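re the bet — no i am not wrong, look at it urself. input seq straight from the record:
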Amino acid sequence: MNKKIFLVIRIIVALILVQTLFFKFTAHPDSVYIFSQVGLEPIGRIGIGIIELIAAILLLFPKTIWAGALVTVGIISGAIMMHLTEIGIEVNEDGGTLFYLAIIVFILASITLYNQRKNIPFIGSKL
């Protein structure tokens, strides 16, 4: 994959992750509502926010791209499952924006992880 395209993909994922942190860390009513619906308010909201911040940072450093992508795929998989099972695709009349952003992040992080598969310790050398 072209290095510039790959860099843009990583930056998009990191920006989306970081953008949501404002809502999580300031206890925005929408964020509190979402995490209350799944029984994770407030510890889950803050904890997931910290994990997303770490993932965003890891995505920006060449040696840790694979780790950031792996963490992102994991955390966003959980978010997608919560949307599909607990909170619904549309939350507080947002038109599904949060769900669709999660899908975009999942796809882009999966592309990133696939691109970095050979850099994953212990596994990558066997691919």
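see?? The chain has five helices and no strands. told u. also The helical segments are 3-25, 29-37, 43-60, 65-87, 97-115. so pay up
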